[in-house]
Amino acid sequence: MYASREDIGYDFGDDSKVRSKPIKPNPNIDGGWAWMIVLSSFLVHILIMGSQMALGILNMEWLEEFNQSRGLTAWVSSLSMGITLIVGPFIGLFISMCGCRTTAIIGGILNALGWTLSAYASNVHYLFLTFGVTAGIGSGMVYLPAVVMVGQYFQKRRALAQGLSTTGTGFGAFLMTALLKYLCTEFGWRNAMFIQGAISLNLCVCGALMRPLSPKELREKCVVRSDSEENRAKALSHSTETIKSNGVLGEEPEKKEEAANEEVLGSVQHVEIGGKSARGRSMYGLRLFKTVSQLTVTVRKGFALWYSSYFGAASLFTNRVFVAFIIWALFAYSSFVIPFIHLPEIVKQYNLSRQDNVFPLTSIIAIVHIFGKVILGIISDLPCISTWNVFLIANFTLVTCILTLPLMQTYIGLAVVCALIGFSSGYFSLMPVVTEDLVGTKHLANAYGIIICANGISALFGPPFAGWIYDITEKYDFSFYIAGLLYMVGIIFLLIQPCIQKKQPREKSTEEAQV
């Protein structure tokens, strides 16, 4: 039901020439170091997404400390979550220029700095800058590379690999909820944030594990993928014609630019050799010039790829299903974030604190979320199962749970709904897979950056909106109802767009027959 990479016109050279030669499979694709990448991504999800899912604990501490409204205080958590995802397109530019490893290490330092500076907050507005912006940008610089690297290293078991790595969100939510609750009780919330900042430095280690694949290894993966998908049904043919008529994304400019870059570097090397024959004069200046030239080449190539993906003649936005995917993302993520931020307050309102202290509802979501991601990933990798259909069914289940949650006022009822929310939200592990099938591995970083940016906007405004509704009505019911209805609108866009895409080629062929 969704367009694969071939459907939207991305190709990776002449397949007939490549297939004529036997290609030895790369041991690092679907194995070897690929599992270290999964481990790195798993730890990133624990430290970033897991910590953000546990912010409900700190939100209650901030309410007591600063005596501000729920709507204003919720902006701290929302800024952190939202900016982590909103900066995705710009992080895609960093990845194109510097690579995933360097980007992730810098992000780890920024994230730790944000947590540490937040320990000295004197008001909520101070937290907006230190925790919301600084820690949020640092988180985004680590999160996107962690997802992209898994997509690069896996081909046959992509959904399972993404599922295993993103289970770190569930583990992290469970572990960080318990950890932050303990640290706040024993040391106070300020010292808890200081300790969490020290723990966050481990993100730099995770970034160091993200060893990049060589261009040759990437080409081998693309060839293997094209061989395995050549019998896949062709959907969305109108989108195919549109993209192919515009040409492959940035292919010709890249070739011309590479030729020009080789000439520049070649001339530098020639001058360097001449310098050696001239008694080594100005060797330092020549080497510096060569280094600057190589850096300039890298930056120009990265920016060209980033720019062509967003604004070129054959940009990602010409794929209509991808645009529908973006619209869905604008409404979806807030429905998952709102329960995590406001459930502790809802439990307190319903006088269920005693039961919740024994087994917190947020921990139920987190634990079941782990199994949901793995199980949905395994199901989606089955040859007879469509990843898109699994994705849609999980979305329908989640939106039903969001609309049902306000009707539950007992701990058992809330626990059952929270378990269903945790399992169905496991579809997050399928988002990179669906995105890669739509745009291809080459443009995964930029495309997924757009998707998580839309998710970030949803996460940014969702919790403050729920807090604002509560300040007016003194109930959270309407917050869940409105969030659920908006979520349903996004799902409808995903359902309608493929139908429109299928009808358009038929209408076009009918008109041609009449002519």
From TrEMBL:
Tell me what topology the record assigns in the membrane. Answer: Multi-pass membrane protein
Give the record's keywords alphabetically: Membrane, Transmembrane, Transmembrane helix
Cellular compartment(s): Membrane
- Show which residues constitute the signal peptide: none
Q: PROSITE patterns recorded for this chain?
A: MFS (PS50850)
GO MF annotation terms: monocarboxylic acid transmembrane transporter activity
Q: Which GO terms describe its cellular component?
A: membrane
Q: Which residues cross the membrane?
A: 33-55, 75-95, 102-120, 126-148, 160-180, 192-210, 321-341, 361-379, 386-405, 411-434, 446-466, 478-496
- What residue stretches are annotated with the Major facilitator superfamily (MFS) profile domain? 37-502
Q: Which SUPFAM superfamilies match?
A: MFS general substrate transporter (SSF103473)
Note the Pfam families from the entry.
Answer: MFS_1
Protein name, as recorded: MOT14 protein
Look up and give the organism this protein is from.
Aegithalos caudatus
